[in-house]
Every structure is written in C-alpha cells, then in structure tokens.
UniProtKB/TrEMBL annotation:
Binds 1 [4Fe-4S] cluster. The cluster is coordinated with 3 cysteines and an exchangeable S-adenosyl-L-methionine. Its cofactor is [4Fe-4S] cluster. Residues 304-584 form the Radical SAM core domain. Keywords: 4Fe-4S, Iron, Iron-sulfur, Metal-binding, S-adenosyl-L-methionine. InterPro entries: Elp3/MiaA/NifB-like_rSAM, Methylthiotransferase_CS, rSAM, rSAM_horseshoe, rSAM_sf, UPF0313, UPF0313_C, UPF0313_N. It comes from the Bacteria. This is YgiQ family radical SAM protein. One of its GO terms (molecular function) is iron ion binding. Pfam families: DUF3362, Radical_SAM_N. Belongs to the UPF0313 family. NCBIfam families: SAM_YgiQ (TIGR03904). The keyword Iron-sulfur applies. [4Fe-4S] cluster binds at residues 318, 322, 325.
Length: 633
C-alpha cells in the first residue's frame, strides 16, 4: 500500500503547517472529535470548504483542556478567526446514557476511548480561546451549538440554559448545515469586515447590545420570543417559544427571531433555502482523503469511521419531524439530494480504498428512502409552516416517488467493483405502505421495495415504528402501528417469494412523553404477537430543540399547550423499560404483579399466559440467534 503524503490532510501540527510552506494560519478549527478527513465528519467538510475558498486552515482535534493549554496555543493567533465545534454529537449525549450514567467509550476517538472531550465542549473550548486570544473572533458551529442556540432545557443539569452564545462568550454561531452561511462569512472576512458587522447573513445567530437599536436587514420581519428570564419563571412561555423556533426554522421565507437575555438581545437570522443539487454536490466533491489523519495509527481504530468508511450519504434532511429527533432541527425538513453523478463518483472513490472488499455498507441518508423527494409545486412548500410533511397525514403535494433511488441502486450495482451495496440506514417504512401513502400512483414503491429486499439488505432491515399506542405515536408524530403491520406483511411476502430469511429489526422507545405504563405493556404484547423479542431498546432522552424535550420539561405540548403525561423518575422509566423483556424468566413475576395491580388480566394473558407463578431465575437465552440492536439519536 502506497503511503499518502501528510500534506493530503489538513494540518494538525506546526510541522505540517511548515511542510506546506505557510508562515501563518488563516483559520483554526477546534473540534471535540478526532480528525477524520471524510464528508461524513463536519470538521473535515468545513475545513475543506475553507481550503477551497483559498484559506489556510489548521485543526486542533480533541485538545487537552486540563493542562497548560498548549494544544490551543500551538498554531498561534489565526489571521481571521477560530471555528469551534463539539463534534458530530452533542457532547452530553456523547458522554451520558438516558439514565445519566457516564459512557465508557467514545465512537469519535481513536480506540473508542472516553475522556478526550469535556462536558459542554463548545463552551469549554471557547472560554479557553477567549482567555488566550481575547481579540480573535470565535465562530461556533456543529450540532451542539446549533441545537442550543436559544433558551433550552438541559436534561443533565435539569435546568433551562440560555443560548450557548451567552455561556460560551463566542462572537457568532452558524446553525444547521453550515456551508451556505460559511461561504458568506469567508467572503466578508477576506474583505476585512469584522464579525460585529456581519449582521445580514442568513442562518447565523449573535448577541446584540440591548442598549442600542437593532437594525433591519433584507426586509426580514422580526418575531420576538419570551425572554430567557420569563422562561425561567414560566414553563408555558418556554413551550410557546419552541413552536415559534421550530416553525421559523423550517420555512423558506422565515422571520428573524429575537430574544432578550439579560441586557443583551439574541438574534437568530432566517435560514437559507435548502441547498440545490449543485451546491450539495460541491460539498461532497471536495478532495477528501476519506481516512483518519495518520497520527492516530498507533492509537487504534476510530469506531465511527469504521462504521461509515464504505458508506455513501445520498441526501440530507428529513421531513418526518419526529418529536424526539434532532435531524430536522439541524438538517432541515426539506431534502437536499446529491446528483447521481456525484454519488456514483463517490462510489468509485470508495472502490479505490486500500481496504475495500467490494461491499458498500450503506447507500442512505437520515432516512434511507427520501432521496430526491420534494414538493410537486414548490410554491406551496414556500408557504408551508408544518413541521412534518407526513404527519398527521402525508401531504398531497409531496412527491414520494422511489424511482430515482431504485435507478441509482441499480447503477451502483452495475459497477464491476461492487459485490453488494447495502442500505444500512433506517428505512421510513410508512412511505412504502399504500394505505398510508396515497401518492404511490405508478407502483414505483413496490418496485423499490423488491429491489431493496432482494439486493440491499445485509441480513436484517432496520425500521422504526417506535411505539404501538396511537396516543403515544401522535405525540411522537409517527403513524399508527397498523401501518407497520401492513409493511411487515408486504415485506414477508417478498421474502417468501425469493426464499429469503432477513429479519425485520424494529426499534421502539420507552418513557417517551405521552406513554404510560399500560401502553408499554401493550407494546410488549403487540410485538410478542408479531414474533419479536426485543433485546436492546431505547430509553427516551430529552435532547435540546425537540418537541419531546419541551414536553418533558414543561409538561405541555408546545403546539397545543395542553398537558402531556411523561415518565420522569428513574423508577417510572425502569418500569416502562422492563416490559420489553417479558420473555426473560427473571422479569415474569414482576410483570405478573404489575399487571395484576393495574387490573389488566387481558395483557397478563397475552404476555405470560395463564401459567402459575414461575420461579425467578437467571436468563441464559440468546435472543433467538438475532443480533442485538441499538439506536442512537
């Protein structure tokens, strides 16, 4: 294998800077992740965009924040600014389980080792930079900054926190997918415009001195939220704020948002319109090495990289708008799809990887089967304020044709170096059920499903019904469980037709707002009737900028302001989770006692039958040979 020159990567050390013949660095990026030069890693994308615009960029990856801070000093003072991100995940989600237990590993660190980034990494990094280089602007980006850009509930401290700009002391924040605002910022920075004058760029947030008048720009109208201080006193006002933020984040012709925070005004400018094909291609077609920086070789593999190194992301965004999910909050509800040419070019690049054995692990996206989907009449989309295009019913203006995906899958299959190209991302199954999706007019959904099941399933197919209770599913913004049953029938018929044995792996969440104990018992019974034994399941975690987080904290739904019951104590959450394991001997007596107290002999009969009390014992089964399934949000 031929070693690539170190200069193929963006520099991580001063030696690498000197190898490039640079006497200074224009921009320094500070990240909580190890540096993987791949389009699935935000720091690489941002760094490569800056490089493509002619800037000299260096990266400080996972700096030590506990010592003499030499990592932060190593490149000296950049000419223009520092860019700070916690990484590909919110640092608190990265560090802690739903029960607030510290995780023992970190998928974005060599060797999977934990402990290489601080809690609230964006805040910690920025404060250090401001102390060391007080006159250098700091620009925040990434999912942690994006989802904490306004007053938000922090589950780990169990309190409301102001915009991350307040606690970090940064100069500006880019929210969402950052390519479009970043190019504007770079253009103005090169012209010598200070950050304090960059006030008319879409998709940025900043703090304005409350004693001076806020100027009008670009004919934007302004919507004012309840102040941070009011939110601290009134949970209902906080919930009402969320509805405004979510609606404005998903509009093409959005309003500017302001919020008083102490003696400052938080200003959130409207987002850019979703990227067109040529724009998103530009991001993916940059000269990535597609590999981790060579400095990590002796420290072991980076799990997140190993998972995606042979995968292709075909699109961004998700129009599902699920209450517990942050994808639409960060990537937007409108789909930005790459061109066939760009996707096939990346597939060809993957085939040249020295470790490639002929298998693409994923042709997908946030939801695998939304590629090329958009409004039939975009003028209707431009006026739309709905947070979801498919809840409570599917929008009649949504083009849900699966034909572009089917054709692209076949073109990937036609590459002689590809043995198999799998779809590893979760499939949005409701789009493939005609009773739910009335927009399937030419039968292309069935053609796609047959192509998917026969050619692109790697042993099992992941889908996410999330619950069986219609009341809970309405809070989740998910369709009725009856559509999952219809999908399973369709899936099983194709399996039978081709003699395949590829189990469906459904994901479910316990303790979600709107879910009560009896709902979980019923979920266990429903899934048992369908032949499932659920091994590893997701306990709900309230993450910032989600409907479910707002309900968890405030007790009301932000759109109706009506109460929604939520399991909050550890005991309540464990009680709900226990029902998943009805098949384990050590849970049976517990389930029998709970359902007797709840006066639900019907559920007791369905779950355990009418057998006498069994002795508890240690479970030694093997989950019927199925692999364990986990899900992260």
């Amino acid at each position: 294998m031929i070693e690539r020159p170190l200069t193929d990567w963006l520099p991580l050390t001063m030696k690498e800077v000197e190898k490039r013949g640079w006497d200074e660095v224009d921009i320094v990026l500070v990240s909580g992740d190890a540096y993987v030069d791949h389009p699935a890693f935000g720091t690489a994308v941002i760094g490569r965009i800056m490089e493509s615009e002619g800037f000299r960029v260096a990266i400080i990856a996972q700096p030590n924040w506990k010592d003499d801070l030499r990592d932060f000093r190593k490149f000296g003072k950049p000419k223009y600014f520092f860019g700070v991100t916690a990484g590909c995940m919110d640092s608190m989600v990265n560090h802690y389980t739903a029960n607030k237990r510290l995780r023992s590993n970190d998928s974005y660190t060599p060797g999977g080792e934990a402990g290489f980034r601080p809690d609230y990494a964006t805040i910690v990094y920025t404060k250090i930079l401001k102390e060391l280089f007080p006159d250098v602007p700091v620009l925040l980006g990434g999912i942690e900054a994006s989802l904490r850009r306004v007053t938000h509930y922090d589950y780990w401290q169990d309190k409301l926190m102001p915009s991350i700009l307040v606690d970090a002391g940064a100069d500006m924040l880019v929210y969402g997918m950052g390519e479009q605002p970043l190019r504007e910022i770079l253009k103005l920075a090169r012209q010598g415009v200070p950050f304090s004058s960059m006030r008319n760029i879409n998709q940025v947030a900043f703090l304005h001195d409350g004693d001076t008048e806020l100027q009008e720009y670009n004919n934007w109208s302004t919507v004012e939220l309840a102040s941070h201080e009011v939110c601290l006193e009134d949970k209902i006002k906080y919930a009402a704020n969320f509805k405004i933020v979510e609606v404005e984040s998903n509009k093409w012709q959005a309003n500017r948002i302001t919020q008083q925070v102490g003696n400052q005004i938080l200003v959130i400018n409207p987002p850019f319109k979703t990227m067109e094909e040529a724009e998103i291609d530009k991001s993916f077609d940059l000269p990535y090495t597609r590999m981790p920086h060579p400095k990590y070789k002796k420290r072991g593999p980076i799990p997140a990289y190993d998972m995606i190194k042979f995968s292709v992301n075909m699109h961004r965004g998700c129009f599902g708008g699920c209450s517990f999910c942050t994808i639409s909050a960060h990537q937007g509800k409108f789909i930005a799809s790459r061109s066939e040419t760009s996707v096939l070019k990346e597939v060809e690049e993957i085939t040249k990887h020295p470790e490639f054995k002929g298998y693409i692990s994923d042709l997908g996206g946030p939801s695998a089967n939304m590629y090329k989907m958009k409004g039939k009449d975009e003028a209707i989309c431009a006026r739309c304020q709905s947070p979801s295009c498919i809840h409570p019913v599917i929008c009649s203006n949504l083009d849900t044709s699966h034909k572009p995906m089917t054709e692209l899958y076949r073109k990937v299959d036609a590459n002689p170096a590809i043995k198999k190209a799998f779809v590893g991302s979760g499939v949005r199954y409701d789009l493939l059920v005609d009773d739910f999706n009335k927009n399937n007019q030419d039968g292309n959904h069935d053609e796609y499903m047959e192509q998917l099941v026969t050619r692109h399933v790697s042993g099992r197919l992941k889908v996410a019904p999330e619950h069986t209770s219609d009341d809970t599913l309405r809070v989740m913004r998910k369709p009725s469980f009856k559509y999952f049953k219809l999908f399973k029938q369709k899936y099983d018929k194709i399996q039978e037709k081709y003699g395949l044995k590829q189990p469906l792996i459904p994901y479910f969440i316990s303790s979600h707002p709107g879910c009560e104990e009896q709902d979980m018992a019923n979920l266990a019974a429903e899934t048992k009737d369908l032949g499932f034994q659920l091994e590893q399941v997701q306990d709900f975690t309230p993450t910032p900028m989600t409907v479910a987080e707002v309900i968890y904290y405030s007790g009301v739904h932000p759109y109706t302001l009506k109460p929604v019951k939520t399991a909050k104590t550890r005991e309540e959450k464990k009680t709900q989770n226990n029902y998943f394991f009805w098949y384990k001997p050590e849970y049976k007596n517990w389930i029998r006692d709970r359902l007797t107290k709840l006066n639900r002999p019907d559920l007791l009969e369905r779950l355990l039958g009418s057998a006498k009390k069994e002795n508890t014992g240690k479970y030694t089964g093997n989950y019927n040979g199925r692999k364990k399934a986990t899900k992260k949000f």
